[in-house]
Design a protein that fits this description.
single chain, mainly alpha, Arc Repressor Mutant, subunit A, Tetracycline Repressor, domain 2
């Protein structure tokens, strides 16, 4: 039997997705062509052919237009689906690195633009810290369930925050060094460092 096709999203939802995509593209185009400060609410709205109030309805925080990707639910589902008993760090490694590989394959320009803005614009960096914390709380709940701990367990919260904070810092390093290295390799090294700490220099 042929596999069942996924039913198309309802018309209303497709229109919402189209509007969100148009707003994102208008903002991205403005930032690339004219810089972050030029990407005002009114200009983004004009570029997307919507009203400023529509932009605010979809993105109450301007920085979120380019930072959010709505993948938190998928990340949580994939984390919950990892093999039972797997080391928590390896579970997060598999889930996060797969998400980054996919993003680099499907939207490499957006990944690089976000990283550059994070390095150059303090407001973007601050907002990314906030959204990363929100992602961390969601993933911490999944890890707590997988390890039999309480949803607000201190060790789970600290561990998840440390991993995501380290990955954010690695992305900043990547941007500060010209986006030249392989980001996935850098992130993989980062997770190794969290497990072992930095290697001590060889003694003469």
């Amino acid at each position: 039997m042929a596999a069942e096709e996924t039913p198309p999203a309802p018309l209303r939802e497709r229109k919402k997705q189209k509007t969100r995509a148009a707003i994102r593209e208008a903002a991205r185009r403005l930032v690339v062509e004219r810089g972050w400060e030029a990407a005002t609410l009114d200009r983004i709205a004009a570029g997307a052919e919507v009203s400023p109030s529509t932009v605010l309805r979809y993105f109450p925080v301007r920085e979120d237009i380019l930072l959010t990707d709505e993948n938190d639910e998928l990340l949580e589902a994939r984390l919950r689906a990892r093999p039972a008993g797997e080391d928590p760090l390896e579970s997060l490694r598999a889930v996060v690195l797969d998400a980054i590989r996919t993003a680099l394959d499907t939207e490499p320009d957006e990944v690089r633009l976000r990283a550059r803005l994070m390095a150059e614009i303090p407001a973007v960096r601050a907002r990314l810290t906030e959204t990363t914390a929100m992602t961390g709380r969601r993933l911490a709940r999944a890890l707590a369930d997988r390890t039999g701990r309480a949803a607000d367990d201190l060790e789970v919260r600290v561990f998840t925050a440390a991993v995501l904070g380290a990955l954010r810092e690695t992305t900043l390093y990547w941007a500060e060094h010209g986006l030249a290295d392989d980001l996935v390799d850098l992130l993989d090294r980062t997770l190794d460092t969290l497990r072992t700490g930095p290697a001590l220099p060889a003694r003469p």
